[in-house]
Hints:
By secondary structure, the protein is α/β, with parallel strands linked by helices. 47% of the residues lie in helices and 14% in strands. It has helices at residues 2-27, 31-37, 86-103, 123-136, 156-170, 193-212, 228-239, 262-272, 286-290, 329-337, 345-348, 351-362, 371-396, 400-419, and strands at 42-48, 60-68, 74-75, 78-81, 108-115, 146-147, 220-224, 243-249, 252-255, 282-284, 296-299, 318-320, 341-343. It starts with a helix and ends with a helix. It binds nicotinamide-adenine-dinucleotide.
Amino acid sequence: xxxxxxxxxxxxxxxxxxxxxxxxxxxxxxxxxxxxxxxxxxxxxxxxxxxxxxxxxxxxxxxxxxxxxxxxxxxxxxxxxxxxxxxxxxxxxxxxxxxxxxxxxxxxxxxxxxxxxxxxxxxxxxxxxxxxxxxxxxxxxxxxxxxxxxxxxxxxxxxxxxxxxxxxxxxxxxxxxxxxxxxxxxxxxxxxxxxxxxxxxxxxxxxxxxxxxxxxxxxxxxxxxxxxxxxxxxxxxxxxxxxxxxxxxxxxxxxxxxxxxxxxxxxxxxxxxxxxxxxxxxxxxxxxxxxxxxxxxxxxxxxxxxxxxxxxxxxxxxxxxxxxxxxxxxxxxxxxxxxxxxxxxxxxxxxxxxxxxxxxxxxxxxxxxxxxxxxxxxxxxxxxxxxxxxxxxxxxxxxxxxxxxxxxxxxxxxxxxxxxxxx
Length: 423
Ligand code: NAD
């Protein structure tokens, strides 16, 4: 079992390690510093044994990786899938370190994983699993240690259970400290957090289109994933008159060269539990979606989907990485050699962590930040970060991913030196 899971998901760790090794070479990093950032600071593995509402006891593996806390507490979502592995969580926690540093929020990198298929759980059973996880890792979660958020397979409601569990276990008020972000607004969450990542992806695409001379509203877009990131991005793009020609999720895909009707598709996904069977388009596979005839491709589901095998067949001119680590190193080389413009994950999907930071800071006052301010600050930070990365990439004639990694790694190294932890 474990060997298969490793084979399926180890790509994300390999990609993360490759990214840091390449940045270390470009920045000529000291080997002692590289040793401090090439591996996670702490990894926790735990078995959960919750009693589910059907009376049966489940046996579920979970992980937390705190990669780096030089610039602040580890930050990153809780992923719940039936295949999540230690390597995947370690790799994703590394990407979080660079993302937080790049977008300029005082967080380090963390990630958690619960190996369990959320679609197989009724809401009460999922709550039992989330509570069991929170109780089990209680001492590893906190405003100064690791602050979780939603990721694939988890949502706002699950973060509400995490927060309640902490209050219940410690006998303290729900208002005491930011233990988790992306929680319901009524419990101290921030308005606009759910949409932040998807909207951030759209702001990054807008900025790229401006630089590339592409008329935003004429673009044909294909999106893999129709959840928090892909679904929100689709709605936002459609609202701005881009044409969404293909969408896929774990159940299958649909395409329509004349444009999919996104509100109708969203309704279908809600009622049919997935994209499959959507009557407004022709059925396609996930692999066909990636290679579909379009201008912009948004991978917004799982990792390592753009590979050495399919990168040569991608037709998009622009790839916006909504997902974490969707592109393998081999694929990256091919995309670069083909002149395809890639907005790297640590820039493209950084809207979520940025608005999580706004939630973290609003927690001390408990005064709700107005949505207009959240959106203004999100758009401003994403566009400003995009400009900085693009400026460096253009000056050095290198891919956006290299420039983004170099800025982020240099910031963390500056923090390490400023803290004086070097001998
Ligand atoms: P989600 O659970 O809300 O949605 C995931 C979507 O991907 C669903 O439509 C699902 O059906 C689809 N999917 C899952 N596995 C798939 C597969 N093997 N093939 C095709 N489709 C598949 O998750 P999300 O929050 O939208 O996260 C999507 C991606 O974005 C992940 O890589 C996540 O790490 C990244 N991300 C999320 C956030 C956030 O704030 N939620 C922030 C940054 C990055």
